[in-house]
Predict the structure.
Amino acid sequence: MPVNENVILLDIEGTITSISFVKDTLFPYVTEVLEGYVEKYWDDESFQQDLELLRAQAVIDSNIEGFVPIYTGDNAKKSVINNVLWQMTNDKKTTALKQLQGHIWKDGYESGLLRGHLYEDVLPVLNKLTDLGKKIYTYSSGSTKAQELLFQYSIYGDVSGTFLKYFDTKMGPKGSETSYANIANEINVNCSDILFLTDVIVEAEAAIKAGCNSILLVRPGNAPLDPEKSSKFRVIKTLDELL
Ligand SMILES: CSCCC(=O)C(=O)COP(=O)(O)O
Ligand SMILES: [Mg+2]
């Protein structure tokens, strides 16, 4: 069934990239190099900015059971590492964690150790939709830098030009309707002109509440969708079904 909306907004993990690439490749890379990264870049301006965000997030998270605090002084580096690992164990989608992860992945992509996964249907369909005049954007919990790297160093080469702009949680959390209104505002369109594709029902519901349209993706390895909640949505297996 063809797409009526002029804007296609794509979630990344579980929608155009496999969850396995994120959970089994990207996240373990961070876990592995984190200590060395913190040691090497501690005094850099960019890391200090990331640290400022982590500290601000730690204040917000301090009431959560099992929270791992960030200290100043002698134990600062170790406590930052432990806080980041705690956030990752809990798959937190905080802007602070995601910004740091994006910066850490840079070395991995540039050295050739990491190559961004994309399902094989993604680029041919997005190119056809672009030819039809559709505008293609992404909205992920991964930082805009992390998104750019994934596409720049993808298994198909540099495909970053496929997307007009990347959005992250600076627009708000993906489960909040105001985030979708913010994106619509940012690209100067009505929400009704946006089709949001995602693997997560809560995100699809938030987009619908904002007045956008939404379709759910079921990719191999995704968590099964709740049958009752997903019954309100069109559910597709590949982007080919949009043509
Ligand atoms: C953009 S690559 C990093 C993916 C990531 O860190 C993440 O949390 C994925 O979340 P998404 O919103 O794309 O499902
Ligand atoms: Mg997703």
